[in-house]
Amino acid sequence: MLKKLFLLSLVAAAGMLIAGCQEKAQPDDRLKEYVDLWNDKKFDKMYDAYLSTSAKETYKKEDVVKRTNDIYEDLAVKDLKVKFKKPKDEKEWDKEKEAEFPVTISMNTLAGEVSYDETVTLKKQKKDDEENWFVDWDPSFILPDMEEGDKVGVESIPAKRGEIYDRNENPLAINGEAFQIGIVPGEFNESELKKLSSLLEMSPEAIQKELGQSWVKPEYFVPIKKLPISERPLALDIIDLPGLYSKRVEARQYPYGEATAHITGYLGKINAEKLEKLKDKGYTAQSLLGISGAEEVYEEKLRGQSGQRIYLTKVNGEETPVAEQEVKDGENISLTLDAEMQKKLYDQMKDEVGTAAAVDPKTGEALALVSVPSYDPNEFALGMAGDKYDKIYNDPDKPLRNRFYQTYSPGSAMKAITASVGLKSGKLDPNKTFDIKGKRWQKDESWGGYQVVRVFDNDSVVDLESGLKYSDNIYFARVGLEMGAEAFIKGLKDFGFGEEIPMSYPIEKSQISNDGKISKEIQLADSAFGQGEVLMSVVHLASAYGGIINDGTMMKPVLLKDEEQGVWKKDLLTPQQSQLMRTNLRKVVSEGIAGKAQVSGKEIAGKTGTAEIKAEQGTKGKENGWFVSYDQKNPEFILAMMLEGVEDRGGSTHTVQVAQKFYSNY
């Protein structure tokens, strides 16, 4: 019995010894655990396990956890970092009841970075028969200087969008005003709905939809439609109706309207898909952004950066700043475009379906880029009714399509490039003649039923000059075959086929064929005179002709005025070969197929082309007519023009006549 008591005494003593050796909780260790949870935004656990009794009595869990989460979400808080350094010197905390430690709190918000120092107080308390250190929480842990009862405010200061000008500072897209037409429902007479519908060019259903929104009350002003400032007489007629009012609001304006629509694009509301992609760049559901054209391409330059201010409103009404990001207005940009030239070219083409590009061969600057039919970007910027948009969208002539961006079969406009490739490669002797009889030709019986067809058969002995003057398909098919696929493909690659067009405004790249190869003789023959699978944009075609007449140097196409000019391709021809091509291109107009391009006082030179779009040889299909031209007396620009559906209007001659009218009036 004595032995048992002795052993029990030893066990008890050992237990007391072990308990005495266990380290007591230290406040700095406890704060380290708390800071780790803080950085992980685990506010629930921070509240439940680490807050002092007095803090919990003062602040309910909702006041701490939910409010912190809500504020951080509203302020788009990212990269929250709370830093705490344990003291180097050990301190005896056994006899202390409180401990204070400095921490640094930093975060990124929608108004920029916030960083501040704070003091965290820990109190020694006994919970569940255990003594530990607990945090005396304070609202300043959420935001600097925040106190109980403070309200968090956010103010957004919108940036002024940059404007777009042409090379002569003519405005293409500017910040202006519009009339916002609206209805006060309590004053509106339903019997006037039909008349209002007619004046606004909106369906009655569209108007009623706006009035039927959940937030609408009888005394509220309900926006219905924006009208251009130029429509002041119409606005006055509308507000004569009972319950109709107007006010001036900010609006994007496009002074040249349809003439420059595909270049400028327009400003519109962001959709859900784009918002998902751009929300990290400061866009919101209320943001406007460039939808197409230069407004979209140069969005980053134009949009600027809205200013943001985060502040606390104290109980006494005073405001305390937390963070502020200064507003940065968008950058104005100038294009190389000549807006007046653009308008004249558009006016000449506006009843057609097609495209044109005027490019300076010496600099690569785009002076005009036309796509027809067009649309009024002002209507889109002000907000277009759904039924009117549907009408434009479903128009068979596709006015929303940007045709100077796209590639097409160049037809015989390709022949000047084929000739240049042959001359440069040494495989084309301009004086060599082919004896060609009749309008049809094939190399041999291996071609089966396929034949190359030419338009004129007046020449039986054809050299480069007559081949260009009369756009002889058979001549160029034979030139292509003699050159061979390898030399032909190499030459086209030298002209930029198959590579991205080096222009800040995106243009589809040209192709030699669907797979970049030419594996059959018939395909080579067709490609040499611009059929086959060869595709080019009107911009690339104008640039390529620029290289031909510019002693073999093709400049990079440029649209931004401050964009660095530079050579895209060089040594495409020797100066002597370039002179020969200039002479022949002039003869195409003065003596050949493009005689209707003659203009008094000018020496128009160029090359026509008809691209046949049909399923098989021998059938009739759609034709696109090309004319690439310039004035040899003053070669300030190459004009490449393509008009669709010319098969019943004289083919490419129709395009020649449209271009001639432009030159006559320019």
Automatic annotation (TrEMBL):
Keywords: Membrane, Signal. The keyword Signal applies. Residues 1-19 form the signal peptide. Gene3D superfamilies: DD-peptidase/beta-lactamase superfamily, NTF2-like, domain 1, Penicillin-binding protein 2a (Domain 2), Penicillin-binding protein 2a, domain 3. PROSITE patterns: PROKAR_LIPOPROTEIN. It is found in: Membrane. It catalyses: Preferential cleavage: (Ac)2-L-Lys-D-Ala-|-D-Ala. Also transpeptidation of peptidyl-alanyl moieties that are N-acyl substituents of D-alanine. One of its GO terms (biological process) is cell wall organization. This is serine-type D-Ala-D-Ala carboxypeptidase. It comes from Rossellomorea aquimaris.
